Amino acid sequence: MAGANRESLNRSILRLAIPNIISNITVPLLGLVDMMLMGHLDSVAYLGAIGLGGTIFSVMYSIFSFMRAGTTGFTAQAYGGKDHQEISYAFYRSMCIALMATLIVLTLQRPIEWIAMQLLNGSPEVLRYTSEYFRVRIWAAPAVLSLYTFNGWYIGMQNTTIPMTIAILINVVNIGLSVLFVNVFHMGVAGVALGTVIAQYTGLLTAIIFMATKYRQYLIPIEKRILLQADKLKRFFKVNTDFMIRSILLVLTLAFFTNQSAKLGDDILAVNMILMQFFYIFSYFTDGFAYAGEALVGRFTGAHDLDNLKKTIRYLLLWGVGLSVPFTLLYWAFPDAFIHLISDQPDIIEKARPYYIYMILIPVITFAAFLWDGIYIGATAAKEIRNTMIIASLLVFLPAWYILMPLYGNHGLWIAFLLFMVARGVSMSVMASSLHSGR
Fold first, then answer.
1. Model pLDDT, residue 438
2. Residue 83: what are its φ and ψ, rounded to 5°?
3. Dihedral sign, CA of 47, 359, 15, 147?
4. What is the mean pLDDT of residues 348-377?
5. Does the pLDDT at position 2 exceed 60?
6. Is the pLDDT of residue 436 over 60?
7. Which of 98-102, 182-186, 215-219, 370-374 is predicted with the least confidence, judged by mean pLDDT?
8. Got the DSSP string for 83-105?
9. CA 126, CA 112: separation in Å to the nearest integer?
10. How far apart, in whole angstroms, are the C-alpha atoms of residue 74 and residue 58?
């Protein structure tokens, strides 16, 4: 029976993880295509602009990305507890925040752009292209923020096929339009941004259609008394505030990495943005299992099934080990081939070679942090995930950067970043005992 239960749980993990992996891998593929389109133009400034522009939106959306994580956790726990009313209201409360966030972002778009331009380090040419990219892509914000709610809710409902379908559609449309706008209409960075805008609204329309057809029974009339129930709202905002702090610190760390890369010159900025694509590629594979963890951990937490909760955590970490080894071997065996996919500029390829070691180390160093993220989100262990991020970003990464970058330059920056990821994995492992309460 134990073997049958293990096989059943692993099948559940794979059933949820594989669609997420398929959908997630389209995201770095999109990033690779964008880098390839810019990397084959006549200036490295285009590559830098895509890197800096993407950083602006990562930081901005990080403030609201808690909506997906929080929606998944609350929905999965309501699903596990068979609370059909709360399943609906988990969606409604999150969508209310998405609409408010949209209003804030669009109203403050010019101040956001001005602040970003003051904070980012880059040549005047890079910053000019970055501004052009921002002013087009900002209009995707309503769709992006709404999709956080939809995708989080679908994952919480143990359905990762719909988010997969939406993600694939978004990225196929985005890639196709980016190639069209850049190579045919010669729109440069604005073409890449416009492709993103159109693709995001295509995804939002698809998400609405799925909700209206497959989950119509959960579109119950909204009662203000239930929507604004004090204890539910208090927990909703407390958990999501901690998730928000965690997300902001994570993306600010990545943004700081980009900012410090830019200080080292346009060539090093381009090299680091290319190498970071391999961090994202592995993260999106591993996040497939992390999302499975969100759904299953939330479900077993809501059902107070402590035995399956512990087994899920153990199996997820074993899957992480199994993923990290082949990625490490691939990155070690074919580094030049991977880099050449993104840029054919000989100077950039040559300058990237001293930093291949960090690309090779990424999988074995980072998998635990990615998987624990999903486990903590499913358990809505928001305080713990916030505290581990504070430790990793403020107490490990920044001191390591301060000491190592002046001594070793870009090598010091990369070592500080990898220490940040190690600290996340270790601190979450240490605090994991709190999850076994089956809260």
1. 44
2. -100, 90
3. negative
4. 92
5. no
6. no
7. 182-186
8. -HHHHHHHHHHHHHHHHHHHHHH
9. 18
10. 24
Mean pLDDT of the 219-230 span? 90
- The full DSSP string for 354-381 is GGHHHHHHHHHHHHHHHHHHHHHHHTT-
Helix axes 2-39, 335-342, angle to 10 degrees: 50
Cβ contact 255:58 at 8 Å = yes
Classify the phi-psi angles of 249: left when phi > 0, otherwise alpha if psi is within -120 to 50, otherwise beta.
alpha
Query: Among 56-60, 172-176, 422-426, which is the least confidently predicted range?
Result: 56-60
Distance, in Å, from the CA atom of 280 to the CA atom of 283, rounded to the nearest integer, reads 5
DSSP state of 431: G
User: Quick one: which of 227, 156, 148, 228 has its CA closest to 380?
Assistant: 156
Per the CB < 8 A criterion, the answer to whether 53 and 189 are in contact is yes
In order of 18, 64, 65, 179, 191, the CA distances from 155 in angstroms are 13, 18, 15, 31, 32
- The residue range of the domain holding 264 is 2-437
Predicted local distance difference test score (pLDDT) of residue 302: 92
Neighbouring C-alpha atoms within 13 Å toward the C-beta of 219: 10
Residue 30 identity: L
| Number of domains comprising the chain | 1
Check: pTM over 0.85? Answer yes or no: no
8 A C-beta contact, residue 311 and residue 9: yes
Burial of 407 (0-12, 13-18, 19+ CB in 10 A): exposed
Say how far apart CA 387 and CA 376 lie, in whole Å.
12
Question: Are 352 and 274 in contact, with CB atoms under 8 Å apart?
Answer: yes
Which of 361, 304, 310 has its CA nearest to residue 332? Answer: 361
Q: Which two tokens stand for residue 22?
A: 């398929």
Predicted confidence (pLDDT) per residue in 145-178, tens digit: 999 999 999 999 999 999 999 998 998 898 899 8
Q: How many CA atoms lie within 13 A of 155 on its CB side?
A: 40
Integer Cα distance of 399 and 408 in angstroms = 14
Task: Report the pLDDT value the prediction gives residue 292, as an integer from 0 to 100.
Answer: 93
Provide the pLDDT confidence category of residue 242 given band limits of 50, 70 and 90: very high
Amino acid at the residue 426: V
Residues 6+ apart with CB under 8 A from 396: 419, 420, 422, 423
Q: Are 157 and 215 in contact (CB under 8 A)?
A: yes
Residue 323 token pair: 């993923």
Using a 10 angstrom Cβ sphere, with 0-12 exposed, 13-18 middle and 19 or more buried, the burial of residue 200 is: buried
